[in-house]
Amino acid sequence: MSSRGRRITDEEMSELVSKLQSLLPESRRRSMSRASAAKLLKETCSYVKSLHREVDDLSDRLSALMATLDANSPQADIIRGLLR
Amino acid sequence: MDLEHSSISKPMIMAFHFLGALSHIQKTTTHSTFVCRCHRIRCAAYTSMALSTGGHSAWSRALLRGKLRRGGLRKRAVILQRPRKRAVRLEEGCQDGADVLRRLVPGSAGMDSAELLDETADYIRCLEEQVSLMRSIVNVVSSL
Fold first, then answer.
1. pLDDT (tens digit, 9 = 90+) per residue, A28-48?
2. In whole angstroms, how far apart are CA B124 and each of A65, B20, B33, B99, B144?
3. pTM score, two decimals?
4. Which of B80, B94, B133 to mutate against chain A (most A CBs within 10 Å)?
5. What average pLDDT does the segment B103-132 reach?
6. How far apart are CA B123 and CA A4, in angstroms?
7. B113-132 residues touching A, CB cutoff 8 A
8. How far apart are CA B107 and CA A12, in angstroms?
């Protein structure tokens, strides 16, 4: 990246750490009371990956549900009415 | 409170777009494969996420640009043209984590650490809302 960048100060570092910690949900934050920025970055990355996986998984489930809706007429009409 | 933004909330905009897309997918994929429909639902999810932020964040613009350009949706980082100010550099141990994060958050490849964190925070919040919306829809539909 940019080789002209300045080094980070201690104050900015601790600001970074607290910001990173606030990104994570409560459940993941509990186990790390005093974590380094590197560890928090890793945790943030794995959290984003897990959210992507959840979106994929929920898309699978919605797709399966829509397939069953096609087969099942009366409920399909209700759903279509709701979605319209 | 900002009057022009208070009337329709972000989650409602997201729900509106996503449900509209689902309705369209329902009509047009009756004879498609499961994989095809699943892919379209996933695309609809990321698009409605991006649309609900109103283009205020780089990740949403990158997602929408990618969708327009390729007619589909790919999670690829787009390097934005921005004035190169003196970037904040992290210490050595953090660079790898920051690079991984830049690959995960769309549109963040050219950012320095401070901007990257702001984008990540916004992206995570939106992802959580989208997940919660999809869960509610799955619950409603599966209980019928």
1. 776 666 677 788 888 899 999
2. 26, 23, 31, 17, 31
3. 0.78
4. B94
5. 89
6. 28
7. 113-114, 117, 120-121, 123-124, 127-128, 130-131
8. 24
